[in-house]
From TrEMBL:
PANTHER family: INTEGRASE CATALYTIC DOMAIN-CONTAINING PROTEIN, PROTEIN CBG26694. This is RNA-directed DNA polymerase. It comes from Parasteatoda tepidariorum (Common house spider). GO terms for molecular function: nucleic acid binding; RNA-directed DNA polymerase activity. It comes from the Eukaryota. Gene3D superfamilies: 1.10.340.70, Ribonuclease H-like superfamily/Ribonuclease H. Residues 76-200 form the Integrase catalytic domain. One of its GO terms (biological process) is DNA integration. Its EC number is 2.7.7.49. The lineage of its organism: Eukaryota, Metazoa, Ecdysozoa, Arthropoda, Chelicerata.
Amino acid sequence: KIVIPLSLVKDVLNLYHNSPLVCHPGISKTLRKIKKIYFWPKMSSHIVNFIKSCNSCLQRKAHQPKRLAPLQKVPPPYGPFEKIACDVVGPLPLTQDGIRYLVTIVDHFTKWLEAVPVSSVSSKYIAIVLLNFISRFGAPKTLITDRGSNLISEGMKIIYKSLGIDKINVIPYRPQSNGAIEIKHKTIANFLCHIVNSTH
């Protein structure tokens, strides 16, 4: 292993935690990766203190809702783009272009994910994103979202009905009910949130 002098510890921590390529991983993941290559005295405590004091991570955690609702099981898909999940991420820190939200769509079968930046999460904007996705991949048999009013408005219901989409509502603030799909949502949200924070 490479022994790091204390004068370079901060550089290593920035590389493994603050770099855009790593997207602010947690304490365990950061510690595990650094330990594979480097060593310095009191490494663990340095990493813990560094991450606990990370402003970008603290800001991100402050906007995460409590997840107390019960789980709801969603049956597995049988083919590509048969079952998709749509979610809204934000509000994120405002960009120079006026973007504050992401509309994300994930295919449950292939795990293909698209994240579209938008300035508003009204039903109109979500409908545009969803219809653009459908124009390229076809209408899904099932669409999974939470119960946000912008996702279950009368206008959205008309779209679902006209395209023959079975709409399933999962309980908000419990991403486990959407399984690996919500993990992808969380990953991309964290990444973009940290990127935006770093430009302010």
